[in-house]
Structure formats: C-alpha cells, structure tokens
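Supplementary notes for students who missed Thursday's class. We covered one full example, reproduced here. Read the sequence, then the structure, then the short commentary at the end.
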Amino acid sequence: MKNPKIGVVTLGCPKNTTDTEVMLGILKEAGLEVTFDNDEAQLCLINTCAFIEDARRESVKTLIELADEGKELIITGCLAQHYKEELLGEIPEVRALVGTGDLTKIADVVKAVIADSSLRIVEVSDVPNDYHEEVLPRLNIGFGASAYLKIAEGCDHRCTFCIIPMLRGDFRSRSIESLVEEAKYLVKNGAREIILISQDSTYYGLDIYKRMALADLLRALHEIEDLHWIRIMYFYPSETNVELLKTIAELPKVVKYVDIPLQHSHPEVLSSMARPQKPEAVIEAIRKYIPDVAIRSTFIVGFPGETDEQFEHLHTFISEQRLNRLGVFTYSKQTEVPSGNMPDQISEKLKKSRRKRIMELQHGISTEANQKLVGRTIEVLIEGFDEAKGLYVGRSQWDAPQVDNQVYVQDPDGDVIIGDFVKVLIQEARPYDLFGMAKPAS
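Structure (token representation):
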C-alpha cells in the first residue's frame, strides 16, 4: 500500500470512543490520512468491544463485513486484547492487533503495516496496565458541543459478571492537572459540556492520591472559562459519599444527574454478583443532598439463580424508588468470569420476559416524571435539527447523550443556534421525549 486512506469504526461504550479519538489524533499527528468514509479506505481501524456476548457478535460481524469488502484490518480494543492471535488465524485480512494498553503504539503499527505487506503484527500486552499521564492528541468524533474526558482506566472491583478487569487491567487514575489541561483543550475546540467517564468514576484518585478525589477534580474543572456543564458517568454505590454529593449540589456547572448502576435490589443476588448491598440507602442519600436530581440506573435480570421471588423484589424496588432513567439488561453469560460457571442459569425466554416487565413498569414511571416538567422553563443544549418534525432537538441537564430523553424545541423568534444553551418552556411530555417553546433571548 502507498499512502492509503485509513477508515475507522468504533464499537461499544463512550470509553471506546475516547480511545478512538486519541488513536486518530496520533495518526493525524504522524501524517497519516484518516477518512470517515470506509468506501474510500484501503485499511480500516476497528476499535472493538467484548463486554458482553452481543457486543462480541457485533464486533465480529463488523470485521467480517469489512473483510468481505476487501479491506485490510487493524483491530484494536477489547476483542484484540481478549483473543489476540485467534483473530489472526480466523480472519486472513487482519494485519495487526493492538491491545487496550497499547493504543499509543498505533502510528508505528500502521506505518509498519503500510511498509511491508507480509507483516502481521500483535501489540497486545498480557497485562493492559499502560496508562499515559500526558495529554495525548485527539480528533473529536463525538457529539457537537459535548466531549468525553476519560479520568481513569481499568477497575479494581471484581463483580462476578464483569470481564472489564481482564480486558482493561486494574484501576489507574490520571492526575487532576492533566485532566484539567485536556478539558481546557476540549473547551478551546468547542466543547461546552465535558462528560467524565471511567469504569468507576467515584473511585477516582484513590490510587494516586490515597483518597477518593472526584470532588477535588470537579472543583478544578469548574474553574474553566466557557465550560457550561460537567457530567459524571458511572458512580459506584458504596463510594458515593456525602462530600461528593454536596460538591455536586454546590457547583452550578455540575449537572444534577447521577448515573449509578445498581444492578439488582435483592441481597442474595447482589451477594452473588459481588455488588454492594442496600441500594435504597444510596438513592436516599442522593436525593437528600442534591435537590432536583435525576437518577439513572441499570439493572440485570436473569442472573444465575435469580428466583421468581428475587425478581419480584427487584420489580417492587423499581416501582417504589421511581428512578428517572432506567436501563435493563438480560444477563449475558461469559465463561471467563465466575457467573458464567454458576449453577441455575436462566433461560433466554425467561430473561426477556422479566426485562419486558421492568421496561413496561418504567414506561409509566418515566411518563410520570416527564409530566412534572410541563409548565417549567428548563435549560436545553441544542444539538441538531429534526427535519421530519421541523423542530430543534437537544438535551436537558438531566439527560446524557444517546441514552436518555430528548427535548424538541420550537423556535418562533429564530434565535436558536445549534451548540447553544436555550431556555425552553416545556409544553408537552411523552415517556421519553419533551416538547417545548424556546424563550426569546434576553
């Protein structure tokens, strides 16, 4: 290949998106040409996910489709970390594998592949604990005025259903100084909302500062001029302490939104998952210390051994707690982690039935929560224009991109600009959408 265009595909979570942006920044800095039109590409970089079985299937399907189109492949991320040489043997078009702890080597790998068509390279550290403190170049492919900031890598928890520590290594925080520097770079390049991500954001700082320091990081980020919103994803129940909650309440730029995967409510199921007990206590604390907060959580149904009684406990818990946002996943069996080898695995049919019941319950809860916003004027980040509806579309502070509600906005005075924050009078509520009128700019 001579000066090929490099295509890119990102699969999985926002943490993967951030990794892709860093790799693209490194490639661009190295003088390599990137294209977002894979039809133009000879060589494709695919940043894969292997968190659950469905994610693995999607990753493999994407690889096969690109190979069938005649593309040569560089596989990065979790699938590369987990399967290493197996992918080389199964897919002849794979030219290189780059593990989760080796992403900074991407330019050298690509250059080597381009220079020698006979090479098949594996850059996958057995223990993916490499994490760089410096601010690396990034090519933003995210949502307009929002940008993700990965504050840590890996995880020290050992939930029995989760493969992340195997794929990403132990928890490693970045320093407050480096994160502030990167956030300033993102804001300078147009970000108005910074979304903090890691596998466990509340654990931030414990490894390098010997204390949980997320509150300190929030205060430092709050000082950045032109930054309007700071959002935190992935709280861990037992680490959501009073200092952190008070800091969220006190800092105007920190949105009043808590994303806290609780996974279940029944003590025996939580014990089998190796998850913290008493989820109702952390919900009570969040609501006590953060007025007007929206709580998002996720739950797993059909965990091995989950009885009808234990599922009903979860159903009742969700009915009573009235969480603003909710995601429900059917348990995904993986034999590499303890839960995959537990007895009493639940049938797919029963898992799906249980998920359906929870989602039907949440449909009503979400409708009720949104109805309470009718008549209120709220701030909305405008992210686009819906041609079919003839309305602008955006998000409130209580909604994360791609997972939560949207707000559709009429603009009678022609003042709305994509990327701006607009005051919107909410006039109609549906289960997962709001509709309102932009108020005149003052």
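Commentary. The domain at 6-123 is CATH 3.40.50.12160 (Rossmann fold). The chain has three domains: 6-123, 146-371, 377-438. If anything here is unclear, bring it to office hours.
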